[in-house]
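Hi X.,

You mentioned you wanted examples for the new student's onboarding notes, showing what a folding record looks like when two proteins sit in one file. Here is a clean example. The first protein comes first, with its sequence line followed by its structure tokens.
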Amino acid sequence: MATTAIIGGGIGGLATAALLTQQGWAVDVFERAPSLPATGTALGMWPEAMAVLERVGAAKAVRAIGIDQRRAEIRSAGGHRLGPEVRAKGATVIISRPRLLESLAACAPAVRFGDRRPGISGLEHDVIVGADGIGSVVRAHVVGREVKPRPLGVDVLIGRCPGSTDTFTEYWGPGRLFGVTPRDGGYINWYSEFDPRAVPGGTPNPDEDPRGFLRAMYRGWDPRVAETIEGIETETALHYRSRDVPRLPRIVRGNIALLGDAAHAMAPNLGRGACETLLDAAALADALGAAADFDGDAAPALRVYESARRRAGQRTMLLSRAMRHVALTSRLRTPRDLLLRAAAALV
């Protein structure tokens, strides 16, 4: 029987495991965490990602849990709309990461939780998939050297607050932005992205007093921003430094393939990371095909996968990085408008 080892039981690992299992592959999923996460931000499942979830068998659950988002808009700090409102060509479903992972896990084989692997030694599977995120241990086996994530020079603070909306709204100002999106469970998802150099002196520490930090950072902004800040659940606030991965010269070697953040971790500014990961999973399953047709040599199929997804993922990564730069800059209005049109074309 054709066998696959998947390192990483996140979105990409679970989706790939489910799709390959449907095709008759014997799949082992190794995940270093002790269980599925209980917390996490909201993720947008764009129409093409929903198509992959249909194939996986998770779309019905995702639609039942998630919130439809059909509109998106970018506004200035004062609330003036920048560019036209963007309407999705199909429904984009917003769902929190924990609920998405639960939906995927219900369709995938059992995960070996608590298995922290330092590499791929000892794995004798026909195919090895590195779905182990931005800090991938599999990546070095594919590229031939260690490729470390690179800092983007911005911090992110995310969380939730009670409420509802069907519109993605992002407010842009010099050195900082604030976003509000739908989220399942009767909540709104909010996030703050900021250049640490733009933080005024005397501002409270975001880890110790997230509401105080946000009040200082967004004082005088559109009233909806202030209302959201006052309603945040401070215990859900998470602060981290944004990173991505440099463009890789390859994402497959022999019988080993990378997908998702291991291959093209990106800035969060387009909301496309999870979608690109699902597209990777579908392309990899399509390239490998049915286990009954596998001839023992995975390399040709993995090269087909690489041709389909390496540059595609990297294009989105570069656009996300550019969008981050323009969003936090007050001067580049022409590039801003061009990027907004390019982003709209992806919807």
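Then the second protein repeats the pattern, sequence line and then tokens:
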Amino acid sequence: MRFLHTADWQLGMTRHFLAGDAQPRYSAARRDAVAGLGALAAEVGAEFVVVAGDVFEHNQLAPHVIGQSLEAMRAIGIPVYLLPGNHDPLDASSVYTGTLFTAECPDNVVVLDHAGVHEIRPGLQIVAAPWRSKAPTTDLVAEVLDGLPKDDITRVLVAHGGVDVLDPDRDKPSLIRLAELEDAVSRGTIHYVALGDKHSLTAVGGSGRVWYSGTPEVTNFDDVEPDPGHVLVVDIDETDPRRPVTVESRRVGHWRFITLHHQVDTSRDITDLGLNLDLMTEKDRAVVRLALTGSLSVTDRAALDACLDKYARLFAWLGLWERHTDLAVMPADGEFSDLGIGGFAAAAVDELVATARAGDNESAVDAHAALALLLRLVGRGAA
């Protein structure tokens, strides 16, 4: 038996930094990743798809988001089992019980809307642990595992949330206890655990049967989400009483959220940064966050700004990670001595240089900006 394990589609997600046509393209890519599961399922011969929570970004979605999302699920063509998670719980405002969803839900889409066993076919069950609020006060998984028998039924547990061994807050009441998962696996009451909530592909424990698939399309930068963009192809050998499992990851995502750390102290460093950005492919599907440190002359800072302006037009988004950027700007000796101006104008420039060198207060920042503007006006502010 073969199926696809995916999670955290978060359809309807917006990223505040995406402007212009980037946000619509990003939203379309997320839907395309869902619809594209149909081709992958056909290729590998998957019987069904499980989505381990957070199908939608939240419960309050525009009608067109719900309609387009359902069409993407329809395109998969095989049964798709949706688990409500913390973003889209089965509460009073649930998207899953709304008029639009219930009216337009395709025949191949099933919401795992009650905790416990769901019969898929003879000999195969999904054991589901849906969220009914954004803050459960118990381990939902422990509740559905309790009392499961060891028999000839193949069971896939579909759950959402943090596992205790990976979460620094060990006292959170909703944490999934790995020891209980591994006990159920070792006893043969559960044969595979499909988890959602962690957006990077992650194997949990040592059994090889407990996995986070991660999100099929990136949602955050690589320091938070190092390995997104995957779907898992899961094989369970139902002819063997031990139900051996094989898991294969397939990359389906196309967008990248990248963090670059770069030291910039000279014009050469700025040139190197530009070369690195230039070599990156598929810029229209890349979001780049720059953590820059260094000390620059006013001329070099103007060149850096010109470089960033150029590549910001090419990438889906490119900008500074302000919290990790530390750039000092200090006029270099003689930097403004050959501008060909004299009299009061030269005296004004000298005063700006002195103010810029005086520190990093507001006046110094204003002086830096004025000097940079002066360089652009005289044609020396381009990279």
